[in-house]
Design goal:
By secondary structure, the chain is an alpha+beta fold. The protein is 72% helix and 9% strand. The chain has 9 helices and 4 strands, in the order ααααβαβββαααα. It has a 4-stranded antiparallel sheet with strand order 1-4-3-2. A hairpin with a 5-residue loop joins β3 (137-145) and β4 (151-158). The protein is rod-shaped, with a radius of gyration of 63 Å.
C-alpha cells in the first residue's frame, strides 16, 4: 500500500514505470524475434554439425580403406572394398554411436552411389541433405560420399533430433535477454532518478518555504536545462521574497514606533486636558466670589450713583479694587505655575 502511495506521489516512479513498460514491451518483442530467428540458426548449426560429423566419418573410413589397400598391395595381395567391409568398419569403430551423441535417434547406413539406392535418390552422388516425409514423419537424410569410391554414408534421423539439438541455446538467449532487460531497467531507474533528484529537492525546498521557512537553502544550478532554470528562478524568488518580508518588517517596526509615539502624545494630551479642566474648575470656583463682589459693587454704583455719599463710593471702589486685585493675583499664579493652581 505504501509502495502504491509512493508511486502516486513520486514523478520519478511514474516516469520510470512508463518508460520501463515501454522498454519491456520493445525488449520482449526483440527477444521473441531474436529467439524465433535464432531457431533457424540453431537448426542450420545442427545440420552443419551433422554434415561435418558425417564428412569426418567418411574421411576416416576412406583413410582406413586406403591404408588397408596399401598394406595389401605391399603384401602382394588384392583387397576388394565391399559394402560389408565398410559396415564392419562402422561397427568396429563405433561410428554410429558417435553420430548419436548429437542425434540420439539417428541411423547410419552404407549405400552404393547409384540411382537404386536411397541416398542417391535423396541427395544424388554429391554430399548433402534433404527433408522429407518418411514413414509418416519428417525425416532428415544426409549423404556423404566415401572419397572417390562407389559407396557413400547416409544418416537418417527424425527432424525432432535436429530441432532439439542444443535446446539450451534458446533458453540461454532468453536468459541473457532477460538479464539484459533487468540491467537496462536498473540503469534506466538510476538515470531517471539522477535527473529528477534536483527536482525532488526543489519540491521539498518549495514546500519548506511555503511552510514559512524562508531560510531553506537552495543551491545555485550551473546547468541550463529546465530543472536548472527552475532551480535558479526559485532561488531568485526566495531572495526577492526574503527582501520584501524584511522591508515589510522594517515598516512594521517603524509603524509600531510611530504608534507608540502617538499613543504617548495622546496620553499626554488627555492628561493636559484633564489638568486644564481641573485648573479651570478650580479657578472658576476661586474667582466666583471676587467677580460676584465686583458685579454687586458695580451694580450698586450704577443704580444708586446719585444717592451714594462719598464715603459709600469709596467703600464700593475699594471693594472693586480688592476683588480686581484678587482676580489678578489668581491669573498671575495660573500663568506662573498652572499645575500648582
Amino acid at each position: 500500500m505504501q509502495f502504491i502511495e509512493k508511486i502516486h506521489t513520486s514523478f520519478t516512479w511514474q516516469l520510470t514505470l512508463w518508460v520501463a513498460g515501454f522498454v519491456l514491451v520493445i525488449s520482449g518483442v526483440v527477444i521473441f524475434l531474436l529467439a524465433r530467428f535464432s531457431q533457424d540458426s540453431i537448426h542450420q548449426e545442427s545440420i552443419d554439425t551433422t554434415q561435418q560429423a558425417l564428412e569426418n566419418t567418411a574421411l576416416r573410413i576412406n583413410n582406413m580403406l586406403t591404408q588397408a589397400e596399401m598394406t595389401a598391395r605391399l603384401e602382394h595381395q588384392s583387397l576388394r572394398v565391399t559394402r560389408g567391409s565398410i559396415e564392419r568398419l562402422v561397427v568396429e569403430n563405433n561410428f554410429e554411436n558417435i553420430i548419436r551423441q548429437s542425434l540420439p535417434h539417428a541411423e547410419l547406413f552404407v549405400s552404393r552411389r547409384d540411382s537404386s539406392q536411397l541416398s542417391s535418390f535423396i541427395a544424388g552422388d554429391e554430399q548433402g541433405y534433404r527433408l522429407m516425409f518418411y514413414e509418416g514423419r519428417e525425416t532428415f537424410i544426409f549423404s556423404q560420399p566415401i572419397g572417390e569410391r562407389d559407396f557413400s554414408l547416409a544418416v537418417v534421423c527424425p527432424a525432432q533430433d535436429i530441432y532439439e539439438y542444443n535446446p539450451g541455446v534458446q533458453w540461454f538467449i532468453l536468459l541473457r535477454g532477460g538479464i539484459g532487460v533487468l540491467i537496462l531497467l536498473y540503469i534506466l531507474f538510476l538515470v531517471v532518478a539522477s535527473h529528477l533528484r534536483p527536482l525532488h529537492r526543489l519540491a521539498d525546498a518549495a514546500q519548506s518555504i511555503a511552510n514559512g521557512n524562508l531560510d531553506t537553502p537552495i543551491p545555485t544550478a550551473y546547468h541550463q536545462h529546465e530543472t536548472g532554470r527552475l532551480q535558479n528562478s526559485l532561488k531568485k524568488m526566495q531572495t526577492s521574497l526574503a527582501a520584501y518580508i524584511a522591508e515589510m518588517q522594517q515598516k512594521k517596526e517603524a509603524l509600531s514606533q510611530q504608534n507608540a509615539e502617538l499613543q504617548t502624545a495622546y496620553s499626554e494630551a488627555e492628561a493636559y486636558e484633564a489638568l486644564r479642566q481641573k485648573v479651570l474648575s478650580k479657578m472658576t470656583d476661586r474667582m466666583a466670589a471676587p467677580v460676584s463682589k465686583i458685579c454687586d459693587s458695580t451694580e450698586a454704583v450704577c443704580r444708586d450713583y446719585n444717592s451714594l455719599s462719598k464715603a459709600e463710593m469709596t467703600v464700593l471702589q475699594t471693594d472693586i479694587m480688592q476683588a480686581t486685585q484678587t482676580i489678578t493675583e489668581l491669573l498671575d499664579q495660573l500663568m506662573e505655575n498652572p499645575s500648582q493652581s
